[in-house]
Structures are given as structure tokens and as C-alpha cells.
């Protein structure tokens, strides 16, 4: 009777919350249930962090089914999840965790600090200003569109024919449709629960704002997982004060180092991949005591990484191979079965993108900020020092951590060598791979706690000095080989770098005035070149017209060289839809040449030449 009652409640409770419009309550209820069913973990924080990353991987797997059945309906998703938890509860009791250990307080404090520094700049701005913070990376416009496309499909976009992806540009439909979609599918699921809705949002402003806030949450979760992972690497024997000192460096590295540079450029998928890589590193170095939980968790993390940022899969593969060899995992029949089931799922994204993947892609350019290579080198040296100090390599966990360090560094060297041999310099994907190296080193920074855990006070004093020096280094330095001072984190927190709020607000303004594109593309020529570029790009996203705005934002891209009036006329002539040009500042000019007209004059001239194709709107 108890089992029957639990199964009824598994569906009745979600039906009730959906009826009264509070489906968001099911998220903490679900996490609480998973926390109680965890094994091999002691404290509430341990279980919560692992529950979050496990659930991410599980949701990706479930999405392959629910993209066809039930779609994104909160009752279907929650009812199915709770049914599985009830089934799991027949094999193990729900047990309350120990509340905390001293190191957990340092993890929470560091996470709260990063959260405040991240949330405040977004909270103080309107939607246009929030778009402006992450507009510079440009890619997030496609991510927003993919998030909404998944919401419309009710599942993964790559499971639908290219012709059905009406929000995506025809020229890029196939590539974007097959792009790793784990984090966007997760955002779409959470969005449905937050709105207690079984349909996608009809309001594009709400949809974009929701995704931006979920993106902020993703960065905060990254901070939480990295700090927790570093504390786990420190081990149960480390002094709380020593762990706190090490985590101070880690927190500084997250917000004032490389991760925040990823954040301000608008890469949700990469941030999610870094979350998974951090958790996987910690759990391979110090596995869960429950063997079956460890095997399932590792499988879910590798699947999650494949569906978020498969550039990091080689690192995950090396880690898993090292773990399998170290613990002879192949001897477990459960591991063999789970591996056989997981490998085809892991392969879905890489195989799906084979048509768009070449060796030349690894040398292509992108919009990521150049990495701070001296800072990354310093992190490698500090992590290595922590691992070998005080006989650290005598510990099996430390040897596994050293293997993780070697794996990350080796892959970086291979990528660098390939790019140097092919194009003579390191470029975009070298910097991208360096991001996972930095995250792994921040996780392994927990080993620094050993320096202050040995007998005597001198190691503690030395550690304190090192911590302060490194934290100060991250705060002051940063960016492209320290050329950007202060760091990107300081610039974000203090408002020194506001991104492109003008372009973001233009986008909101245009989409508010003309919410329906109606076979028309809106072009922003109201201000300076970058404002026009971002206003056109994000305006098309808010109008759900990126399909046609894509070509125009490429045309307006200031990095693509000078444009003449003839180029503008040519762009108008090949447009598949009508062009609505917005002008305002009579002095603004994006065209070049000795007799180049202002934006107002240029818009007037092309309207006169193409009266049936061009409309000029003056603000």
C-alpha cells in the first residue's frame, strides 16, 4: 500500500502544482528526494552538488525519449522522474545527510561571494543592459534562438528535420540544429517549470530574459561545483583553515580569472561543460564509496559533457580510462552493462556533427577572448606543487590527481603543436581548451591545503602568503596576457565594462515597436557601428526573425572590413524579404570612403532606389 500511495503521489503532486501554477516547487522537492537516496556521500552539500550534476546528465538522456513522448510538459517530466525515484526507494531508504563539515562553510561562502558579484551587475540593468553585458560574444544570439527552437519543438532540435527549424537561418540550419544541446534543453525544461506551462513562451522578451538569468545561474553553479571539487581534492584530513585559504585562491580564479571571460562572452554550453569537467575530475580522483553510484555518475557526466561541449571529451576519455585502470572497473558486470548503454549515447553529438567537422575547424577563428596564458601556467605550477608537497604522491588519490593534471596539460600541448604547425600560432580552440585546463587546475588547487596541514606553523604562514599573492594577482591582472587591467571580473563587478548596452536597448526598442517581422528584416543604423551590429542581431532574436537578421548582422559586422554604399545596395537587392532601416543620429556613419553618406542619407538613397523593398523609420 505504501508503494502504491507513493506512485500515486508521484503523479498527483505534479498535477496539483501544475493546476495551481507552482510547478517550480517540484525542482527543490526532486533534489531533496535525490539527496536522500544518495550513497557514498556524507554532507548535504556533497549530496546536493552530485545530485545537480547527476540530474543534468539524466535529463539529457531522458530528453532523447521525451522529445517524442510528453515533450516538455511539467506533469509528464516530473511524474516520470518521481516514479523512477520511487522505484529506487524500493532498493534503498531515504536517509537525511549530515548537515555540514567545516570545509562546506568555505565552499558556500565562496559561492555566495561569486554569486553576489555576478548577479548584481545583471540586476541593476534592464533587459537591454543585460543583453549588452554578454552581447560581445555574439554567439549567444544563436544560443537564445536554439533555446527557443527547442521550446517550440518540445525536445532536441537535432531530432527534427532541418526544414522544421523555422527560427534558424537557412544557411546555418543544419549546423546549429545538430549543435550540442544539453544545456539548452535543460533551460527549456526549467523554463516550463518556472512558468508552470506546457507550451513555449509567447513573449520573446520574457523568454530571452529567462535564458539570461538561467545563464547567470549556470555561472554560479560553476563556482559552486569548482569550489566543492577543490574541497574534495583537499581531502578529509585537511585543516579547515588550510582549505579556506586554498578555496580563496579558487574563488578568485573563478571570478577574476579565465571562467568569467567565458561568461561575459556568452557561452552557456561551454560553462556547462566546465561544470561537468570539474565534477568529473573530483569524482575520478576521489570516487564515491558506493561502487554502483560511482559508475552511474561517471557515465552520466560523460554523456552530459558530450551533449554540452564535446571539445572536452578527449580529456574526459583520458580521465575515465585512468579511473578504469586504477580501480579495475572492467571487472564489474554493472560497469560493462552501463558502458555498453552509455557509449552510443555519448557518440550521438560527435557523429551528428561529423558533416560539419574537419581538422581545419581546429584552426578557425572565433569570438572568444584570448586566454591569459601566464596565469594558466601559474595555476599549473601551484596545482603541481600542492600535489607533490609533503609526500603527496604517496596517496593513490594524489597520483590520480597528478594523472588528471598530466592529461589536461598533454591535450593542451597537442592542440598548441597542431596549430603552430598548421597556421603558425595558437588560436581560438587552443584558448577554448585552455579553459578546461584552468578549471582542472583550480579543482586541483585543493591540494594546496596540504602545505598548511603538516605540523608546524611555517607551512601555514607560507600558504597564507602564497594565497594572498595569487588572489591579488587574479584581481589585478587578467585578460590577454595581463594586457587588460583590471581583470574582466573586476570590470564586470564595478561596471567599468558595461558591454554593449546601446545595442541591447536598440534591440529591445525595435522589437517592441515592431514585434512581428511580417516578411521584413529590421536593420539598426541608429548609432555607431557596434551599436548597429548588436541592435540588428539581438533585435532579430527578440522578433524571432534571426533567420533573416543573420545575413544583415554579418553585413554590419565592424570586423569584416569597410562597407560602401554599393555594398549596402547589393545587400538590399539580395534580401529575400523587405528591409526596414531604422535611423536616428544624423551624424552616425558606418559606410566608408571619401564621399560616404551618413546613415540617414544612405538609408534615404537606397529607399529611393528600391522603393518596394526598403522602408526608412526615423526615431
TrEMBL record:
The chain crosses the membrane at residues 25-41, 48-66, 102-124, 212-231, 243-265, 271-288, 295-321, 333-354, 375-394, 400-421, 433-453, 459-477. The keyword Chaperone does not apply. It comes from the Bacteria. Keywords: Membrane, Transmembrane, Transmembrane helix. The lineage of its organism: Bacteria, Bacillati, Actinomycetota, Actinomycetes, Micromonosporales. This is Uncharacterized protein. It comes from Virgisporangium ochraceum.
Amino acid at each position: 500500500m505504501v508503494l502504491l500511495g507513493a506512485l500515486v503521489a508521484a503523479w498527483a503532486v505534479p498535477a496539483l502544482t501544475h493546476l495551481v501554477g507552482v510547478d517550480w516547487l517540484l525542482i527543490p522537492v526532486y533534489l531533496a528526494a535525490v539527496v536522500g537516496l544518495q550513497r557514498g556521500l556524507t554532507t548535504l552539500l556533497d549530496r546536493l552538488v552530485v545530485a545537480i550534476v547527476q540530474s543534468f546528465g539524466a535529463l539529457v538522456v531522458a530528453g532523447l525519449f521525451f522529445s517524442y513522448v510528453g515533450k516538455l510538459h511539467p506533469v509528464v517530466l516530473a511524474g516520470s522522474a518521481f516514479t523512477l525515484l520511487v522505484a529506487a526507494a524500493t532498493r534503498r531508504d531515504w536517509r537525511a545527510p549530515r548537515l555540514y563539515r567545516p570545509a562546506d562553510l568555505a565552499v558556500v561562502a565562496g559561492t555566495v561571494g561569486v554569486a553576489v558579484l555576478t548577479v548584481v551587475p545583471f540586476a541593476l540593468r534592464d533587459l537591454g543592459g543585460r543583453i549588452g553585458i554578454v552581447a560581445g560574444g555574439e554567439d549567444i544570439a544563436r544560443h537564445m534562438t536554439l533555446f527557443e527552437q527547442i521550446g517550440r519543438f518540445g525536445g532536441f532540435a537535432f531530432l527534427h528535420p532541418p526544414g522544421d527549424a523555422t527560427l534558424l537561418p537557412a544557411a546555418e540550419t543544419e549546423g546549429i540544429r545538430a549543435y550540442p544541446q544539453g544545456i539548452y534543453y535543460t533551460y527549456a525544461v526549467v523554463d516550463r517549470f518556472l512558468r508552470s506551462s506546457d507550451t513555449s513562451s509567447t513573449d520573446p522578451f520574457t523568454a530571452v530574459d529567462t535564458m539570461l538569468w538561467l545563464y547567470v545561474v549556470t555561472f554560479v553553479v560553476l563556482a559552486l561545483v569548482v569550489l566543492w571539487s577543490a574541497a574534495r581534492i583537499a581531502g578529509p584530513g585537511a585543516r579547515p583553515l588550510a582549505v579556506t585559504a586554498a578555496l580563496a585562491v579558487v574563488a578568485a580564479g573563478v571570478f577574476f580569472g579565465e571562467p568569467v571571460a567565458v561568461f561575459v562572452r556568452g557561452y552557456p554550453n561551454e560553462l556547462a561543460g566546465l561544470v561537468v569537467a570539474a565534477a568529473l575530475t573530483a569524482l575520478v580522483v576521489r570516487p564515491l564509496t558506493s561502487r554502483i553510484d560511482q559508475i552511474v555518475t561517471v557515465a552520466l557526466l560523460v554523456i552530459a559533457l558530450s551533449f554540452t561541449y564535446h571539445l572536452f571529451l578527449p580529456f574526459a576519455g583520458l580521465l575515465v580510462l585512468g579511473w578504469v585502470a586504477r580501480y579495475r572497473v572492467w571487472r564489474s558486470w554493472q560497469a560493462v552493462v552501463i558502458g555498453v548503454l552509455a557509449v552510443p549515447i555519448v557518440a550521438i553529438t560527435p557523429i551528428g556533427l561529423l558533416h560539419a567537422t574537419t581538422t581545419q575547424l581546429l584552426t578557425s577563428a572565433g569570438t572568444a577572448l584570448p586566454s591569459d596564458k601566464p596565469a594558466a601556467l601559474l595555476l599549473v605550477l601551484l596545482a603541481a606543487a600542492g600535489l607533490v608537497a609533503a609526500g603527496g604522491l604517496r596517496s593513490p588519490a594524489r597520483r590520480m590527481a597528478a594523472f588528471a593534471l598530466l592529461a589536461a596539460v598533454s591535450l593542451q600541448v597537442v592542440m598548441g603543436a597542431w596549430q603552430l604547425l598548421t597556421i603558425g600560432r595558437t588560436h581560438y580552440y587552443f584558448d577554448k581548451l585552455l579553459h578546461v585546463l584552468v578549471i582542472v587546475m583550480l579543482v586541483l588547487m585543493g591540494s594546496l591545503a596540504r602545505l598548511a596541514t603538516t605540523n608546524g606553523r611555517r607551512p601555514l604562514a607560507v600558504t597564507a602568503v602564497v594565497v594572498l599573492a595569487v588572489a591579488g594577482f587574479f584581481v589585478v591582472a587578467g585578460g590577454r596576457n595581463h594586457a587588460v587591467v583590471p581583470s574582466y571580473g573586476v570590470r564586470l563587478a564595478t561596471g567599468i565594462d558595461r558591454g554593449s548596452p546601446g545595442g541591447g536597448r536598440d534591440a529591445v526598442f525595435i522589437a517592441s515597436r515592431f514585434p512581428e517581422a511580417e516578411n521584413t528584416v529590421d536593420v539598426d543604423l541608429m548609432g555607431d557601428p557596434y551599436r548597429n551590429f548588436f541592435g540588428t542581431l539581438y533585435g532579430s532574436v527578440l522578433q524571432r526573425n534571426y533567420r533573416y537578421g543573420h545575413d544583415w548582422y554579418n553585413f554590419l559586422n565592424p570586423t569584416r572590413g569597410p562597407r560602401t554604399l554599393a555594398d549596402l545596395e547589393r545587400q538590399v537587392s539580395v534580401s529575400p524579404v523587405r528591409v526596414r532601416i531604422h535611423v536616428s543620429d544624423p551624424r552616425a556613419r558606418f559606410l566608408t570612403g571619401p564621399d560616404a553618406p551618413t546613415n540617414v542619407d544612405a538609408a534615404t538613397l537606397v529607399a529611393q532606389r528600391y522603393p518596394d523593398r526598403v522602408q526608412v523609420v526615423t526615431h
